[in-house]
Amino acid sequence: MVNAKPLVSIISAGMSKFGKHDGLLTRELFAIAAAEAFSRCPKLQPKQDIKAMFIGHMGEAYEHQGHTGSTLADWAGLAGIPATRTEAACGSSGVALRSGIYAVLSGLADMVIVGGVEKMTHRTTAEVTEYLAMASDYPFEQFHGITFPGLFALMANAHMHAYGTTEEQIGMVAVKNHYHGSLNPKAHMQKEITLQNVMGSKYVAWPLKLYDCSLITDGASCIIITKPELAKKYTDQPVHIVGTGQASDTIGLYERKTLTSLQSTKLAAKTAYEMAGVTPDQINLAEVHDCFTFAEIMHYEDLGFCKEGEGGKLVERGETRLGGHIPVNTSGGLKSKGHPVGATGTAQAYEMYLQLTDQAEKRQVKDAQIGLTQNIGGSGATAAVHIYRRDQ
Amino acid sequence: MVNAKPLVSIISAGMSKFGKHDGLLTRELFAIAAAEAFSRCPKLQPKQDIKAMFIGHMGEAYEHQGHTGSTLADWAGLAGIPATRTEAACGSSGVALRSGIYAVLSGLADMVIVGGVEKMTHRTTAEVTEYLAMASDYPFEQFHGITFPGLFALMANAHMHAYGTTEEQIGMVAVKNHYHGSLNPKAHMQKEITLQNVMGSKYVAWPLKLYDCSLITDGASCIIITKPELAKKYTDQPVHIVGTGQASDTIGLYERKTLTSLQSTKLAAKTAYEMAGVTPDQINLAEVHDCFTFAEIMHYEDLGFCKEGEGGKLVERGETRLGGHIPVNTSGGLKSKGHPVGATGTAQAYEMYLQLTDQAEKRQVKDAQIGLTQNIGGSGATAAVHIYRRDQ
C-alpha cells in the first residue's frame, strides 16, 4: 500500500457526454459538467463553498468568444468568484488543474473548481484544423503548411526508425482505446474496431491513418478540489492528488534534441513521481494524451511504464488493455472518448475519480490504488502530469 | 506608517517600450521585458531560480499563435519551467499576477515570473476591434454589433444621468494621463494635450470621443515575485505585495444591476483591502484601468477614492494628478502609455515597482508608501486589484 501524502483532495467531478452537442454554447456545455459535479456532492453549497475557478479553454475562434473564465463562472452559478481561463493548447485543463492546486495550497482558496471545455463540431474540419494549428509554431511550422497530424507523423517516423516500432503496433492503440470507449457511456464513439479497420483506413500523414487520429468533439469536464483535511466533511470517498508536475519545452519540433520522446513529459513526470514518492511500477492505471495513437506509445516510455523504444511491444502484449498489468485510457482516451481540447485534461481526472471510487462500471480496474494522468499541449511544448491515490 | 504583512515580494521588473514595434514577434517583444527584469537583478540566475511563469496574453488571432506560455518561456531562456498563459481579456496579466501569487504561496514555486504581452499594431483597426470584441458577450453583445466603445459609452451615459458627470470631466482624465505620459519615456504617446483637443475630437460612441479611447499598442511587461523572506537575498529594494483580490461578474452588461459601477472591482478591492489591512485613504498612488477615460472616473468610486458619483469632481479638482493627494496613472495609463491588452496588468505593477523604489524619475510621487493597481477584463467581467507597500 502506498502512503503518499495528499496535496489536495477531489470531492466531486462532472463531465458532459462527449460527442456532438448541436445548438449548445460553450458556456451551456460547461454548465452540464458543473451541474453533475454539484449534484454528486449534496453537502456542497457551490456558491458559498467554492472560492476560485480555473478553466482550460483553448480556442476563442470557435465561437468568437474569449474571456471564458468569468463567463463559465456565471453560467455555473458562481458569478463573483475569481475565475481564470488557462490556455496551453490541448493541455489547457491539465494546467488549469495545476493552477487550482497552487490556489488551494496557497491558503487563499480552500475549495476550487477546475475544469475545461471546447465546442468544436459546429465548425468545419478545415476550420478546426486551422484553429488547432495555432498551438504549433507560427513562423516555423504553421507558415510552412504543417499541421498536427504531420508533426506527430514526424515523431512516429523517428520512433519507427530508431526502435523498429511498427504501423500495426501503433494501430493497436486505436483498437484498445475503442474497446475501452465501447464500455464508456459518455464516450463520443462507443464501438469496437479491428486492426484491419485501422490498417485499411486512409493515410493522413504517413504512418498515421484516419483511425490513428483523435476525434473532433464537443465536451466539458470538471473536478472540485479542496484541502485534504476538509474533504471528509463533503464526501466519504475523496480521491487524493499526491503529485503534480508541469513542464514546458520549445514550441517547435525543430529546436528539440530528439523526436522520439517528449522532454516536457519526462520533466513533469519526474516532478510528480518525486512529490508523490511513487515509482512508475506502482501506477495501477493511467490516462495519457493519445491525440494520435503513436503518441500513446511514446508516453508509455516517457512515463516509465516501459523502457525507451519498447512502447510498441507494451501495447502489442496487451499490457495496457483492461485486464493487463497497467490499463491505459480506460475511458477510451482522446481516440474514442473524444478530444474536446480544453476539456481533455480534467476529463482524464474525471476518469481517475470514477476509477478510484469504484464507479467506472464495465471498465472498472479492480483494486486500483494509484493512478496517473498525462495531458500535453500541442506537440508537447506543455505537459502536465498528476498522480492520484485512492482514499484509505 | 502602514505595516501590512507581505504576501510576496517583487525583486525585479521589466517592460518594453510601449508603442509600435514593427517586425517583432510577440515572443521577441516579451523577451525584451524579461531581459530588463533579469538585468535589473544581477544576483538572479533566471534559469536556476525561476520555478514557474504565468503570462497574460489575450489574443491568439493577432499572430495566429496560441500556446504562448511555453513559447515565451523558451524565448526568455526559461524552457522547461511550468509556463501557463492566462486570459481574461484586458485583465489577462492582472490574473496572471494573482495566479503567480497563488504559486509562490503554495510552496511549490519559490520564485515566479509573471508578465503579459500583446502585439497589435501590425493589424488594421478593424481587425483589432474584432479581436477585442471577443472579450464581450458573443450572443448578446457582439452579435448585435456593439463593440467596447459602445459598451463603455452606455456606462458613461448612465453615470452622467445619475450623477451629473460631465463630458468635460471625462475629458480631463485624458488631459491628466497625457501629461503623465509625457513624463514617461516608455509611454506610447509622450505629448500633452488640452481639454480643447479632447472636446474637439470626433465622437466614437457618445459621449466618448477619439481622445477618450486608449491606444492600440505593442508591448510587454513582467515582474519577478518571490517569498518575502527570500527577497533580500536578491535585492536591497524589494516591493511587497500586501493584498490581492480577483473577482468576476457577468460578461454581458445586460445582466447587471447597475451600469454606474463595477461589482467585480468592488469585490476584488474589498478582498485586497481587507487582506492588506489598508483603507482607501491610505493609498498614496494608483494605476487603474483607463481603457476609456470614463472608466477611470468609475474606478475612483469603486476603489473608494471618493464617494459614489463624485469621481468627476475628483479629477476636476486635480486630486488625481501628479502633486494631488492621490495621483492616478502616473505612467500615463492605458490612455497615453498605451494598452497592449495582455501586458497592461503587469505594466501597472511595473510602474508601482518603479514608484515604490524611487525610480520613476520625472513622475516620481514623493514619499509614497502604499500603491494600488486595478486591472479589468472586457467591460468588467474580470477585475484584479493588488496593493503594494514600499520596503521599510
The biggest beta sheet of chain A is recorded as: 9 strands, mixed
Which regions of chain A have little confidence, pLDDT < 50, spanning 5+ residues?
none
CATH structural fold name of chain A: Peroxisomal Thiolase, Chain A, domain 1
Average pLDDT confidence of chain A is: 97
Shape of chain A: globular
Query: From the coordinates shown, what is the CATH architecture of chain A?
Result: 3-Layer(aba) Sandwich
Spell out the blueprint of helices and strands:
The structure is a homodimer of 392-residue chains.
Chain A (H helix, E strand, L loop, with lengths): L7 E8 L10 H14 L6 H4 L2 E5 L11 H8 L7 E5 L4 H15 L4 E8 L6 H9 L14 H16 L3 H15 L13 H5 L3 E3 L2 E2 L9 E8 L1 H7 L4 E10 L14 H14 L8 E3 L5 H10 L8 H6 L16 H4 L7 H12 L14 E8 L4 E9 L2
How would you describe the overall organization of this protein?
Two copies of one chain form a homodimer. The longest helix of chain A has 16 residues, at 148-163. The relative contact order of chain A is 0.20. The first copy, chain A, is globular. With 392 residues, the first copy, chain A, is α/β, with parallel strands linked by helices. The first copy, chain A, has one domain: Peroxisomal Thiolase, Chain A, domain 1 (3-Layer(aba) Sandwich). In chain A, the strands form two sheets. In chain A, strands 3-2-4-7-1-8-11-10-9 form a nine-stranded mixed sheet, with helices on both faces. Chain A has a two-stranded antiparallel sheet with strand order 5-6. Chain A is built from 14 helices and eleven strands. The first copy, chain A, has helices at residues 26-39, 46-49, 68-75, 92-106, 125-133, 148-163, 167-181, 195-199, 228-234, 263-276, 293-302, 311-316, 333-336, 344-355; strands at residues 8-15, 52-56, 83-87, 111-118, 203-205, 208-209, 219-226, 239-248, 285-287, 370-377, 382-390. Strand 3 of chain A pairs antiparallel with strand 3 of chain B, so a sheet runs across the interface.
